[in-house]
């Protein structure tokens, strides 16, 4: 017989699967229970890479698993094909972004075909197709109609290299652009926003429902990103100004300790106060503002940096005690958090204390914070350390003597009765800036009149198609290239003869990916974005899989849009992803792989050298899927050897095994027990994402099966066939080709991917029992019946508790215990 030849096997089954299309599902499915399994769709930046290989391997294990468990499984694929990288590559190579993008998609499709994830290829979507982005525009118009899409002029993050606006989320902690690496600066522009802040509470509270089903780390990142902060809004009068100024504080209990006020230099209030001051102050303010704008938000919030600021020559009045306090400007107060102004309590807030000490402003202790021994903490003005803990209020009028929590409640009550403040909640989350001044994206379906009037494009005339890139200068310059497409941009109203200009901006591609999972249900429907009946039957996604790099943005935006569509009556559910698996990264020698480091493991070359199965088994076996995989530590050859051993069993059965349909009763009992333990354990292991353990169990099963064949049972034993069938079914999660070939050799029709796993037989799951000997100083003192699978700890505990041993040991001292579970426990003693 010929040996295991992965190339021949791939060539044998690919055309069969192409013909069978086993993973296409129609409409509502066949009436079996449904599972919707989705991998985060790829960005077509070239061929697939090892990261894709890993992510799609894990997603596919789960999709194939649920099919084996008797579910209709929807497992679609598409491409996230708009966005900057395509455009930048196109600019560099002088080709059309369209051509570049679709050529890459074609290459990725070919690689996927060979890698063989169990996709439903009848539902492919590309977000850069007009058939897709038309519905992006539909979504935008829905948001506009509901007041959830709006335009405002504001300071935005500006990437000076890519010459485009970035969302806060795209600015890294060091203040550089996630995309270009350039230092991000601030620029004032009119931009489109989605009002995600309206959903802040729900986005936060509903995370509780995902507890245990999403990685804890991702839940925390989402929580921190939304950043809900409960406190109070306190209104301060500013002398000479009609309107009062609100500040946000989490510590209204410290109001009596507020000794000055600080406003953000880049706030409207600071500009207004400075303009009402002397020419010197005005000049100083211009300089200070310019200096502030050079700082990133991170730098401004840094506790390391020395505080800077200036007196604005104004005074505010503390609403609880009528005290006059000076108003300063400093960059540590941010314009777009809370109200852009704070009451400074230097005794109990470190930033305020640093500022007060630098500019010699008064420090007043209002909370008597003590250490564990009840001793008063050093005076902050002396020690330079603010005290933020709990304690009794002092120097605080009616609040005196109250502990922190009670004082907060009382302070709010005081403010509310006087009408100078109220309880409030603030969020770190900002509205979602969705407009981009770039070509390769979805045009925003809004028309502008000469007088500044805005008009949504008639939904019946969608899509607003992206004009050809020919003749347009795609190079970034701060305004959208589409503005120069005059013919495209100019629209005449046939009825009124009025001329309108198209909005030249395109949408952030996170809009595209915020709802794509819904489009898969209606990928070929040109009458609606998605069919609510289908979406509500299949949705929400039962299992989502993808990289942790999307822990915040993509997931948050998808959650937001899902809630909006729920509120609009389209969706029954309001959370898109019921369970989430984040795979680790594929590394090489402990480092992230990259072309520049020269340590790139090329997916295409691995695939052609070892085949899809060996690659997939290697990825699944490397460790828990959440962990990083170091390619230097794995053995693709080892995986190939295992596959050959598994395949050989089916090959041998083909040439002399028990026939198809044979009753397994009466087969080798030990082997049957192993098979049924595997069938019983595999589901729980897969559902807990312990794919590596399942592969290890398969390896073990292949070994015991071969042993049974060699040591008596023989190839014709029905238990051997039973085991081989179970191996083929479970192996198909990881190695679809080898498993299919085994399945055929076992006499079955393709495809094993749709074969339902047999249930484990309970009688075969009872544990084997053995007799364990207990020895004391070399003499057998007891014999105990124990389960064959007993652990060393359990064996020792049982031995120590046995009567025979206790009689032999009495009051002698145990000096050594040797455990050989399940056979023997041997104890040495001395007087
Ligand atoms: C007085 C006070 C006393 C404060 C005290 C803290 C401790 P989180 O928890 O992050 O919400 N703050 C308010 N608006 C600000 C802004 N735009 N820029 C910088 N800081 C701002 O922080 C809320 C606290 O941060 C607020 O409570 C305010 O300082 C400050 F012992 O008010 B606090």
TrEMBL record:
Keyword ATP-binding on entry: yes
Residue ranges annotated for the Leucyl-tRNA synthetase editing domain, each copy included: 223-414
Ranges in coiled-coil conformation: none
Pfam families xrefs: Anticodon_1, tRNA-synt_1, tRNA-synt_1_2
An example Gene Ontology biological process: leucyl-tRNA aminoacylation
Main location: cytoplasm
EC number(s) stated in the UniProt entry for this protein: 6.1.1.4
GO CC, alphabetical: cytosol
Positions bound to ATP: 595
Ranges for domain Methionyl/Valyl/Leucyl/Isoleucyl-tRNA synthetase anticodon-binding: 669-793
Short sequence motif named 'HIGH' region, residue ranges: 42-52
Catalysed reaction, written as an equation: tRNA(Leu) + L-leucine + ATP = L-leucyl-tRNA(Leu) + AMP + diphosphate
Gene3D superfamilies: 3.10.20.590, HUPs, Isoleucyl-tRNA Synthetase, Domain 1, Valyl/Leucyl/Isoleucyl-tRNA synthetase, editing domain
Domain Aminoacyl-tRNA synthetase class Ia residue range list: 13-210, 429-630
Keyword Ligase: yes
InterPro entries found in the cross-reference section: aa-tRNA-synth_I_CS (IPR001412), aa-tRNA-synth_Ia (IPR002300), Leu-tRNA-ligase (IPR002302), Leu_tRNA-synth_edit (IPR025709), M/V/L/I-tRNA-synth_anticd-bd (IPR013155), Rossmann-like_a/b/a_fold (IPR014729), tRNAsynth_Ia_anticodon-bd (IPR009080), Val/Leu/Ile-tRNA-synth_edit (IPR009008)
Motif 'KMSKS' region: positions: 592-596
Molecular function GO terms recorded: aminoacyl-tRNA deacylase activity; ATP binding; leucine-tRNA ligase activity
Subcellular locations according to the entry: Cytoplasm
Keywords: Aminoacyl-tRNA synthetase, ATP-binding, Cytoplasm, Ligase, Nucleotide-binding, Protein biosynthesis
Family (UniProt): Belongs to the class-I aminoacyl-tRNA synthetase family.
PANTHER family with a match to the protein in the record: LEUCINE--TRNA LIGASE, MITOCHONDRIAL, LEUCYL-TRNA SYNTHETASE
Protein's UniProt name: Leucine--tRNA ligase
Upper classification of the organism: Bacteria, Bacillati, Actinomycetota, Actinomycetes, Micrococcales
Gene name of the encoded protein: leuS
